[in-house]
User: What shape does this take?
Amino acid sequence: MYLHIGKGTVLPTEDIVAIFDLDLTSQSYLTRAFLRRAEQSGQVVNAAEDIPKSFLLCEREGQRKVYLSQMAASTLLKRAESGLI
Assistant: This one.
């Protein structure tokens, strides 16, 4: 199954490790540091046309990627659970 996260980006649901609300999690220094390191190492993919509201941590074949999405984390979670793409 696949999950559309915005800007034409579709991810296999089995690759998704976690979905995070960007507003809530970015209050933590640790999360900000994690996102900064991921961006510096080229692991961030921006799938948001506007200000991102969530980010997804994905892993495939040992490679980690962080996807930024303009969709709310709750919307992405509902889509993933319901099987809607």
